[in-house]
Each structure stands twice: as structure tokens, then as C-alpha cells.
């Protein structure tokens, strides 16, 4: 018998509290770093170092999730993140801070974040029926944009009142709440067979990739979502400078950022309200095409209301699309392999997302912005104008087209379009 859905929603609520604490600490460290050093460039590299553990150890993280009790993996993930936050705060406040401390802590934190995320995804199919996975995955995806709305509002006020040390203590307090309650949650487990020989551990570590390779619809979808991460991550980090260049107003920029978060929240909330999606692939295709089209509109638009509407629609399908993809993976993957399969997907993302961060900045700074502002490509100024931000606008248009091409490639395959019926459930 499956445990009550209330247990799962309690677990997700605890994960949301933990995520809010982590976002508060992240923003507070960023504020402290900028005020103390006067530079932001090293902060952009933190995202890269956070992804590195997944890149190198993703298969082993997945194996650990599948070998250990799921509750143990979740608690270790929470505990590790809290310890990393405390170590970084100690370094910053001790007077012996060095830049490499930040990168080392980011890498360790990425390891524990991956374990927490993979173990939570793997425990969900044990707690609800398959037709309920869409809704609970949507609830899970709702947490990130919700924390993204609440944390900035709280961080600025709390930083002035209690400083970095106080916010870190709040983060650690959320850890005690989450771990303390999780310890008493009746989370279900699967039976683990013992490891007979050391060599089997290495073989089993790559079983997730073998399963994906044998199931071509899952492979094609994973490659598409890796492409999706590559196209979206870097350009979306340019939202603040792009909005400032386009509007010339701090208040308008903040309003547009609010519209982005509102779009993401609305999409996740709509998925929660809808509940079960019968034709998941159809919704994923429609969401992909909508996002890619709106990327093009945002890049070309010079009217505030058009930009705002396009941003809202751009963000609307993101959480829903990720939730439906997670549901497909959970339904098609054997329970004993879900940790490794989700870790393999995260490992692919760990390649594409950092690469996007590394390439986007130089492309804008050394190529697109200078070329567009100098009028070297006059035939393109019809699309984006010639002022500051025109190079970023051109990048958005190009990324929208590339995202659309990727969607056409992935969904031109009949095995992908029909995977819900042609690929057997676990």
C-alpha cells in the first residue's frame, strides 16, 4: 500500500523551505561579495563549479541514490548543503577568505544538491499512482520560481537587519526543520539486493546510460532537453542588462523580471490545477514551440507591453514541460534504476548549462554587441535596432530559432511522438 499523498506533499513542502533558505543564503553571499570586492565576474563562475560534480560523478550519485535508502539520500543532500553554507559563511566572516573557497564550496554544494534532487524524484513514484505524477511533479517544479519570488524580497530586508551571518543562521535553521521532520516521515523504500563483487558496482553505475541508450525515445528527449538547457540558460542570465538597455529604467526592469517570475509561477500552478495530462508529448511540443517563438518576439520587440506579454508566455510552459518530462521518465524507468537515470539526465544538463554560461558572455561582449552598435550589420538592425542591447536582442532571436530547430528535430521522430503508447511502462 502506498503512503498517504499528504506525506509526499509534506516532503515537497520541506524541500521548498530548504530551497528558500538556500536562495536567501545565495543572494546574501552575492550581496556581500559585490560590496566587498566590487566585482561580479567570479559570481558567474559559481554556476559552473556547482555543475562540475554532476559532470564528473553523476553516475555515482545515481548509484548511491539507488543503493541507499531514499530517505537517507534526501537527508544527506539537505545536510551537506547546510554544512557547505556554514563553511562559506565562516570563510567570508573569518577574515581569511580567498576566491577559491567559493568555488570549492560551490562544487561540494552541487554534489549534495544533485543527490537531494535525484532522490526526491526517485521516491515520488513510490508514493503516488502513475496518473498522479503529473500533478506532484508540477508541485515540485512550482517550488523553484516560488522561492525565486520570495527570496529576493526577503533577502534585501534581512541583510540590512541581520547581515550575512544572520541569514546563514536562518538557512541552517530551515535545515534543522527539514531534516528533523523528514526523519519521521514514513517514506517508502524498495528492496535492495546486496553488491556481490566490486566490479558489479562499476557496471551498475553506468546502467542508467545503458537503459537510456536502449530506449531511443527517452534518449532523443534527453538530448533535446540538454539542447534546451544549452540554449536557455546563458541568454536568460542576460535578462537584467537587456531590460535595462531596452527600457533605460530600473523600475521597468524590475517589473519585467516580475512578469517573468509570474509566467513561470502561472505555468506551474496551471499544471498543478490540471492534474493529469493524457497527451504529455503534445503539451511538451506545444510548450517548446511557444517558448521558442516568444524568445524571437522578446529579442525583436521595442515596446514594453509586447516584451512583457512575450516574457510571460515564454516562461509559462517551462515548469509544465519539465514536470511532464519527469513524469515520463518516472513511468518508463524501473524503480530500481530511477536514481541513475535521473542522475544521467542531470549529468547531460551539467555539460550543456555551464557551456552556455561560458559561451554567452564572450559572444555578446566581443562579437554581437560591438557589431550591432557599430552598424556593421545594418541589414539586421531592422530586427533589433542599433542601440545598446541590440546584440543581446539578436542573440535572443537566434536562440529562439535554434530552439525551434531542436524541437522539430526531436519531435520529427515518430518513436518520440508515440512514446507514451509505444514505450512500455515500468
TrEMBL record:
Sequence intervals crossing the membrane: 12-34, 40-63, 75-97, 161-187, 218-240, 252-274, 281-298, 304-329, 341-368, 388-411
Alphabetical list of Gene3D superfamilies matching this protein: MFS general substrate transporter like domains (1.20.1250.20)
Chief subcellular location: membrane
Pfam families: MFS_1
Family annotation (CDD domains): MFS_MefA_like (cd06173)
Lineage: superkingdom: Bacteria
Any one GO MF annotation of this record: transmembrane transporter activity
SUPFAM superfamilies per record: MFS general substrate transporter
Bilayer topology term: Multi-pass membrane protein
Record-level GO cellular component terms: plasma membrane
Record keywords, A-Z: Cell membrane, Membrane, Transmembrane, Transmembrane helix
Locations listed in the record: Cell membrane
Designated name of the protein: MFS transporter
Organism listed in the record: Paenibacillus sedimenti
